[in-house]
Here is the input.
Amino acid sequence: GAVVSQHPSRVICKSGTSVKIECRSLDFQATTMFWYRQFPKQSLMLMATSNEGSKATYEQGVEKDKFLINHASLTLSTLTVTSAHPEDSSFYICSAPSHREGGYTFGSGTRLTVV
Amino acid sequence: AQSVTQPDIHITVSEGASLELRCNYSYGATPYLFWYVQSPGQGLQLLLKYFSGDTLVQGIKGFEAEFKRSQSSFNLRKPSVHWSDAAEYFCAVGAQTSYDKVIFGPGTSLSVIP
Here is the structure.
């Protein structure tokens, strides 16, 4: 079936540094990738939608200069958390529509801890 | 506006008892409907999905859900709960007309008493 590989699964970084999260579609082409954030004991909130070759669309309240999204190819989308702060600590998860599966395929998530 | 509500924040059931988790949605178009489960510290696992056809959908781990258009509901059920079913459950809705974003409900936390 369709698989989205997300790396890293866990990352700890110092405050002020940047962290890049990658999502790769392994056996299908993902023209669209959705990026979600989940704070502890809360639901998944959509941050942004990336489309291959074009600028990402950000949800209201999400800082586009802080959360840089790149979708340069049909199999790779990246989310970079710039100048990370402790309040950015969260679980980040990507998802791509999967025409073959008739739904959406989720990555396994990245747990970011900023210290 | 698109939205998903899960009225029960937390549910506790005894092992072997039946379970029903409620989900209501508000969506302008004909929706895709999903139920996901998330164990602590883990990613999401798809339990089942509804696109069209039979309104009673069978999923993995013995779960089923019924789509009721008139009630805008997609409740999840299991006849006999196992201790390993303790987790967070999310109902979600997406568009059928295009691969639009998926909106998640707030989640229901399930505890199972031995």
Notes: Chain A touches chain B through 22 residues (CB under 8 Å). The first strand of chain A starts at residue 4 and ends at 7. Residues 30 and 74 of chain A are 5 Å apart (CA to CA). Chain A has a mean pLDDT of 91.
